[in-house]
Amino acid sequence: MKLNRLEVSNRVFLAPLSGITDSAFRLVAKEHGAGLVYTEMISAEGLVRGGAKTRRLMEFGDDERPIGVQLFGSQPEVLADAVQIVTQRQPDLIDLNFGCPSRKVVRKNGGAAVLKDLTLMEGMVRAAVGATDLPVTVKIRSGWDQTSIVASEAAILCEALGVAGITIHPRTRQQVFSGRANWELIGMVKERVEIPVIGNGDVRTPQDGLRMFAETGCDAAMIGRGALGNPWIFSQIVALLEGKDDLTFPSVNQRIDLCLRHTRQLLAIKGDFTGLRQMRKHFGWYTKGFPGGAQLRRTLVRLERLQDVESVFQNYQRERASYSQKFPQVAERTI
Ligand SMILES: Cc1cc2nc3c(=O)[nH]c(=O)nc-3n(C[C@H](O)[C@H](O)[C@H](O)COP(=O)(O)O)c2cc1C
After folding, report:
1. What is the pLDDT of residues 126-173, one digit of tens each?
2. What percent of the chain has pLDDT over 90?
3. Which 3 state secondary structure label does DSSP give 7?
């Protein structure tokens, strides 16, 4: 599949997730088969102002490629400057966020607020495409609310302006994350444009991924929440797309191994204090469904040092192993 000149090796992508898709998590997704990953959304204004914290959000390693840097904003000129700054860093593409529902972002006419004003969208896209030779993609919701569904119109507009691909999360801004993503709309947009359409929303299992391709005809599927603590979903969907149906699911021990590797990676970047605090939500996701998981999580979120995390997991594994010896009929469980 191609997004302008960028060729991606498979059609299952990691969604941009603010506060989550940092370098460490992107690498985890990449290693587990994601064909494309994105940074968290980055404020165009913040980048142009030169905030160090904002700039750090666009850092990535070559092992994360192909990678898209995602920007949000509301002023075409500022966006163009931000796009130039990002272009210097040479990611594989730049994505524009026209879907963020957060009050803080829409109040300043950014994110999903752009869906209310297609003239503004046109100005923003034109400014971004004109400021870089990298592929520019766009991520939208269905519309602002149920009475203003603009996904097809926006996609046609973006295509005409030279956008390389469009992601649709078919919920309105008003819905935020409630209800269900209306996949029918992805199929409708796919019929209206030639550029690749990336479907997004509510893919929680490998079978959901396959169903999204089948029901919408989308060119790629983008996965956010379904990959939390569960990056295996990328290679599982790729396997299903290749016609394999003997999916393998990770065991408790494999989940622990990955969680520890992810923790070490994040702490190497952020240090123990910040890294462990940011890792807490991931502990919850990786250990979801574990026997005795609630107790384990209560312990994990209080820890301040990597070696304590390692020994808590070791103890948990030791206890489970002795339990299995006592009750051999309870085999190593997959979740
Ligand atoms: C915690 C969180 C943070 C998000 N941050 C971003 C973001 O930075 N940029 C963006 O375009 N979408 C963001 N989204 C939306 C997701 O990319 C995606 O569109 C949405 O979660 C639906 O897909 P899913 O059902 O696979 O999670 C975020 C969603 C969540 C839950």
Report:
1. 999 999 999 999 999 999 999 999 999 999 999 999 999 999 999 999
2. 94
3. strand
How confident is the model at residue 97, as a pLDDT? 98
**Entry field: residues in the chain:** 335
Does residue 41 have its Cβ closer than 6 Å to ligand 1?
Answer: yes
List strand residue ranges (DSSP E) for 44-155, in order.
67-72, 93-98, 136-143
Identify the bridge partners of residue 149 per DSSP, sorted by sequence position: 143
Residue whose Cα lies nearest atom 2 of ligand 1: it is: 17
Instruction: Work out which ligand 1 atom sits closest to the CA atom of 41.
Output: 8
Question: Which residue segments constitute the domains of the chain, with CATH numbers given?
Answer: 2-241 (3.20.20.70), 252-326 (1.10.1200)
d(CA 181, CA 183): 6
- 100 belongs to the catalytic site: yes
User: Does the beta carbon of 16 sit less than 6 angstroms from any atom of ligand 1?
Assistant: yes
Q: Which is nearest to 114 in space by CA: 127, 128, 101?
A: 101
Q: How far is the CA of 17 from the centre of ligand 1 (A)?
A: 5
Given a cut of 90, whether residue 251 has pLDDT beyond it is yes
Instruction: Give the H/E segment covering residue 301.
Output: none
What tens digit of pLDDT does each residue of 255-279 get?
A: 999 999 999 999 999 999 999 999 9
Rounded-to-integer distance, Cα 143 and Cα 154, Å: 9
